[in-house]
């Protein structure tokens, strides 16, 4: 039996597939540790800690998970120390002493909570570099403000700790709500340039944080002009480390051990430079290059806060960083969860991951911890070391706790220039990605990124991001305004209703069809696109028009100003004495249009475009030549048959009189006859599951129906029912064969006539598709 903690049970199991996959198909699901068999996804908080087996097997399983646990613990401790220094290192040793335990609280709680509540049992969590960068800016800003006000260290510590606690609780609450409401995709609607500008602005502020770490003063004209008192002659160790860390921005280290290894190399370079310069540790600490010694006695879990010392007014000034922290953490969770899903080929429930991270942050906040989220690099490290269950994470959390309790004094030997180089490297990577490499973006998007960075540098995150969102919306409106909202334009000569008429009526409609102009709209209509519609209709009214049809079937919505544009359109049509027709209006669109005050008579409205076209065709034919329905069949057939042939054909047909609502034939009936409609109206329809019927096509006087099934020798494919009293002539298959034997010339003429009818229908269908696509 393989030990799942040491390696995957099988190659299929490591990739989230069962060994029974064939032809590329696989069975998705979690792999039960130690068995390699898939099981259903566990509910929130469920899942096996280790396989259900004998005590000896469980012991072997734990030992097999120990290598993964040790590596995960090492990386988690390295990140915890690094991020603690990043957040609290620039604000004084007192804050670092109190802040370091907070990072370990976050590491332990995120490891445990996310592991036991995530949709993947090997998912790991902890502090994230982007969230930590924002926290370092917030903590540094609060600390600098309070130091300038000459407040006591106790007040600074209480205010900073409260800010971190509130951040974790609020971030956790928002994440829980987003997951509970299944709104995990909301953050993905943030404009891409706004995200880029936000991250580039974060990079700039990280550089200013590095300046503060090195000098003890915030970056500004006053600090530069005052000539900050530094030990310039002894800056060689600092320069070596900072320059060495500056090589990181343009590189992406995907391996989770890259950051700890970089910090170790930078620290070794710092100490080598100290030795070469003859500077002792005491001198380096006096120069401010090292942290004050810490002892385990400084660690209190959780950290105790005196609420009377908290300055709430100063906290309120930094609400912008808190809003940014919520957005960045949510985005980081979704992106990291997506990365884990792609890398491990496992399905991830994003809303569940939000709830998981939300619970972890709320618990972290209750214990004074910082904001945490899912970790892509640490999860993949855990996965590649063979962990498929939760036992390795549990052991890693215990090891982190042991380090927090007994080995914190080692932090006193961490060089501050390494922290500055880390901040410069992280900030430089963001600036390189979003200010240098993003130049390939569209000109407007790149301009927006630069604008946000400039505003963030001058006025802060909230102003920069808010302005970026506003500008992005304006750019979107301008770009969307260039996209045509007209899906299709047509005239009465190019698009006809589903009512098939006689050949004479169709020829008449081709001549009169230019009196009709219509547009089928699409998308969301706002004032810009609505003005395009009015302008286009004005152009069309320069030609003789009688009807204007506007179809809203593919319109998702419209704003309030758009309804006023249609009022203007109605005024234009009234001026030209043209009938305005609106079709396909949904309830969401009808409400704003109904509130509009149309001049004179309101536009005509039909349920769909086909009904409107049928009504318009009736109006055109009625005003053109009056009622042509009487003897229309005889007149139409007389154009294709001489008197003898027509008499021979009618002699073999049977006249049928049908009341309205009569089923001429049903779907599935034998196709043994076709009908020549002499007077009345029939419709081809299909039954719907809800009980209604969908009309496919209608046939009026002087048309034929049912010929396709007769000629193909197949059963009926739809129902045909009379819409009003109808008189028709029925030609059965037996009579058609008799005609072919007795009078081949008339039968041949009949076949030619049917071919012309079918060709005419195909031509109309092709024209409709051409207009639509």
From TrEMBL:
CDD domains: CAP_ED, STAS_SulP_like_sulfate_transporter. Keywords: Membrane, Transmembrane, Transmembrane helix. One of its GO terms (cellular component) is membrane. The keyword Repeat does not apply. The chain crosses the membrane at residues 66-88, 100-120, 132-150, 156-179, 186-210, 230-250, 257-281, 322-342, 393-412, 418-436, 448-478. Residues 519-616 form the STAS domain. It is a multi-pass membrane protein. SUPFAM superfamilies: cAMP-binding domain-like, SpoIIaa-like. Residues 1-35 are annotated as: Disordered. It is found in: Membrane. Pfam families: cNMP_binding, STAS, Sulfate_transp. It comes from the Bacteria. Residues 637-739 form the Cyclic nucleotide-binding domain. This is Cyclic nucleotide-binding protein. The lineage of its organism: Bacteria, Pseudomonadati, Pseudomonadota, Betaproteobacteria, Burkholderiales.
């Amino acid at each position: 039996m393989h030990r799942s903690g040491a390696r995957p049970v099988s190659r299929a199991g490591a990739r989230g597939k069962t060994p029974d996959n064939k032809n590329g198909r696989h069975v998705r699901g979690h792999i039960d540790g130690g068995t390699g068999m898939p099981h259903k996804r566990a509910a929130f908080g469920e899942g096996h800690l280790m396989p259900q087996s004998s005590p000896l097997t469980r012991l072997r399983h734990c030992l097999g998970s120990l290598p993964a646990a040790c590596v995960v613990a090492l990386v988690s401790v390295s990140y915890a120390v690094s991020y603690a220094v990043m957040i609290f290192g620039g604000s004084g040793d007192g804050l670092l002493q109190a802040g370091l335990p907070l990072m370990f609280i976050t590491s332990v709680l995120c490891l445990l909570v996310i592991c036991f509540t995530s949709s993947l049992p090997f998912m790991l969590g902890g502090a994230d570099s982007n969230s930590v960068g924002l926290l370092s800016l917030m903590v540094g800003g609060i600390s600098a403000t309070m130091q300038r006000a000459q407040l006591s260290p106790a007040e600074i510590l209480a205010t900073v700790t409260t800010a971190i606690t509130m951040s974790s609780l609020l971030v956790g609450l928002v994440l829980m709500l987003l997951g509970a409401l299944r709104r995990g995709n909301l953050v993905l609607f943030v404009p891409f340039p706004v995200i880029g500008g936000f991250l580039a602005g974060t990079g700039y502020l990280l550089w200013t944080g590095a300046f503060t770490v090195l000098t003890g003063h915030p970056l500004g004209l006053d600090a530069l002009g005052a000539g900050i008192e530094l030990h310039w002659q002894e800056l060689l160790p600092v320069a070596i480390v900072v320059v060495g860390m500056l090589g990181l921005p343009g590189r992406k280290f995907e391996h989770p051990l890259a950051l700890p290894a970089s910090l170790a190399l930078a620290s070794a370079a710092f100490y080598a430079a100290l030795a070469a310069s003859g500077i002792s540790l005491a001198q380096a600490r006096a120069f401010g290059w090292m942290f004050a010694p810490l002892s385990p006695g400084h660690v209190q879990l959780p950290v105790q806060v005196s609420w009377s010392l908290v300055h709430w007014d100063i906290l309120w000034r930094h609400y912008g960083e808190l809003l940014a922290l919520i957005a960045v953490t949510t985005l980081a969770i979704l992106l990291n969860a997506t990365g884990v899903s792609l890398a491990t080929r496992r399905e991830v429930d994003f809303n569940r991951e939000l709830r998981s991270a939300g619970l972890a942050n709320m618990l972290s906040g209750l214990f004074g911890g910082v904001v945490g989220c899912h970790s892509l690099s640490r999860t993949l490290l855990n996965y590649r070391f063979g962990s498929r269950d939760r036992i390795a994470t549990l052991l890693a959390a215990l090891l982190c706790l042991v380090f927090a309790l007994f080995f914190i004094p080692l932090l006193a030997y961490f060089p501050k220039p390494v922290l500055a180089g880390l901040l410069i490297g992280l900030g430089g990577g963001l600036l390189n990605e979003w200010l240098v490499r993003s130049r390939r973006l569209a000109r407007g998007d790149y301009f927006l990124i630069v604008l946000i960075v400039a505003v963030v540098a001058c006025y802060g995150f909230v102003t920069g991001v808010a302005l970026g969102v506003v500008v992005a919306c304006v750019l979107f409106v301008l770009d969307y305004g260039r996209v045509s909202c007209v899906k299709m334009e047509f005239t009465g000569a190019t698009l006809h209703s589903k009512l098939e008429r006689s050949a004479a009526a169709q020829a008449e409609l081709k001549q009169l069809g230019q009196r009709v102009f219509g547009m089928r709209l699409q998308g969301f209509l706002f004032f810009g696109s609505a003005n395009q519609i009015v302008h286009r209709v004005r152009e069309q009214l320069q030609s003789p028009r009688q009807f204007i049809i506007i179809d809203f079937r593919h319109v998702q919505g419209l704003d309030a100003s758009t309804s006023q544009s249609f009022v203007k359109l109605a005024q234009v049509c009234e001026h030209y004495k043209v009938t305005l027709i609106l079709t396909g209006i949904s309830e969401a669109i009808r409400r704003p249009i109904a509130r509009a005050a149309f001049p004179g008579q309101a536009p005509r409205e039909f349920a769909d475009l086909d009904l409107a076209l049928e009504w318009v065709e009736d109006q055109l034919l009625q005003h053109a030549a009056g009622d042509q329905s009487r003897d229309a069949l005889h007149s139409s057939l007389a154009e294709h048959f001489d008197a003898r042939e027509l008499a021979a054909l009618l002699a073999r047909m049977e006249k049928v009189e049908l009341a309205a609502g009569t089923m001429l034939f049903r779907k599935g009936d034998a196709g043994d006859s076709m009908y020549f409609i002499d007077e009345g109206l029939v419709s081809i329809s299909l039954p719907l599951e809800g009980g209604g019927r969908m009309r496919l096509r209608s046939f009026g006087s002087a048309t034929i129906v049912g010929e396709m099934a007769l000629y193909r020798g197949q059963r009926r494919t739809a129902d045909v029912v009379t819409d009003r009293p109808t008189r028709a002539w029925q030609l059965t298959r037996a009579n058609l064969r008799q005609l072919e034997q007795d009078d081949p010339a008339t039968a041949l003429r009949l076949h030619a006539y049917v071919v012309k009818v079918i060709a005419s229908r195909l031509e109309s269908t092709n024209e409709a598709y051409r207009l639509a696509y």
